[in-house]
Amino acid sequence: MAYLLNGSKLVASSKLLSVFERDPNKGEELVHELCDQLLDPTRFEERSDRIQWLKALISEDETFEKFSTKVQNMDSSPFCGCVWTANFVAYRCRTCAASPCMSLCAACFERGNHEGHDYNIFRSEAGGACDCGDPSVMKQSGF
Questions:
Q1: What gap in Å lies between CA 123 and CA 87, rounded to an integer?
Q2: CA-angle at 107, arms to 103 and 113, nearest 5°
Q3: How many CA atoms lie within 13 A of 9 on its CB side?
Q4: Bridge partners of 111?
Q5: Domain containing 137: what range?
Q6: Which of these three, 74, 108, 125, is where a domain ends?
Q7: pLDDT tens, 122-134?
Q8: Domains contained in the chain, number
Q9: Range list of H helices, the chain
Q10: Residue ranges of the chain whose pLDDT lies below 70
């Protein structure tokens, strides 16, 4: 099936999806075959478009915005999942916290109702992760 790399990215990603729907094991084999072709270090010079191909195969050749929306619609996790590095601006709501180290990203803080709460805004020194949706560090009323 490596011949798929000679045609259109949209056709190849549609074919890959079709194979996965019929036979997930065969789909997995095809992914391995295509990745072997695209990521073969001895052939890097031949395939300057390998990153575009990998993106197209993963996203069904959708734009980043459409693919991102699709992935977000599939996520049913109550956890935010935002992870940040040093100097990220985050929030801590002491009213909602079940732990003094609870932190929220700006999006979760703004979505939550923290009006009248005891909170502070801080710049992370070493990085961190949003605790929204985690009942072990945050009261459920806060998310």
A1: 5
A2: 80
A3: 16
A4: none
A5: 83-142
A6: 74
A7: 999 988 999 998 8
A8: 2
A9: 9-22, 24-38, 50-59, 64-74, 106-111
A10: 1-2, 75-77, 142-143
